[in-house]
Amino acid sequence: MTKAKKHSKGPRKPKVGEAYELFAYEKFRRLFPDATVAQDEHVVGILSGEDRQIDVSVRFRDGTLIAVSCKDRTRKATLPSIDDFAGFMRDVGAAKGFLMSAPGFAKTTHRYARAIRIELITIEDMKHPKWTARVKIPVRLNDWRHAQVRMEMDLVVSEELAAVAKGRDDHFTLTLETPASTDRGRTRTTLGTLFENERRRSGLTFRTPGQVTLTDLYISIFDVWTKVQLDCTWIPTPKVFFKEVTPEEYTHLINHGRGILLPLRVRMTVDPDDGWVEVDPATPDAFPGVHVIIDKDASP
Q: Which of 54, 196, 231, 241 is the most buried (most CB within 10 A)?
């Protein structure tokens, strides 16, 4: 007499590719926050009448269905994979499809997939041990506080100034550090401070050419307070700095058929003081893929 074998009720063994489906499900929830996103949805085929399983489904309020098929294989997807998925989309009534292949796609699939509303994608996450995104994000810092300022001055030479200046061999140089006053020296500041106050009051920034006129102004020339009118103009010439930053969190979607990289999540910290390298201001602002541009301005 033989005894019946006992079957232990252990945890369900994950099906092949289930981890990739779960990975895709979590990312599509972020990509379509206003839709109903489900993993492993079963529907009855419109044409076949059979049970069909959708790896990840995205349903909108108007009834539109997007079907996502996840292929965690070792070889790139080819034309037969596109054909199989196109037939599957018709049977489940999907208006659009995303075919997600971990190793990518053969180039011969791109044109055909676009023509039949199938997007060929991979998704990578820098924190995932298998489907990993390795990325350093270029950061450009435009420091607009270094505009070139040109000053033109009209002044009235008093007898006192003429007497002091007579016979001197040195020359007076006007700079933003020149002592200045609006009350003939009773209260003192610098020309740069008065210029900056007037620029801020006028709501002007260094990112575009501009002009500020200072009237009722006194500056110290050879220790003589002299009334002047000063026209200050500037040309936007920022100092430009560059560095690459590794983000704390990063996920992107690559659309192979359209040549598009779409960031799904980015969290990064940019140290304002460390690691910057000054580069030529003519360096283009745009970098391939994800990049950050920071404008540092002295505007109000």
A: 54
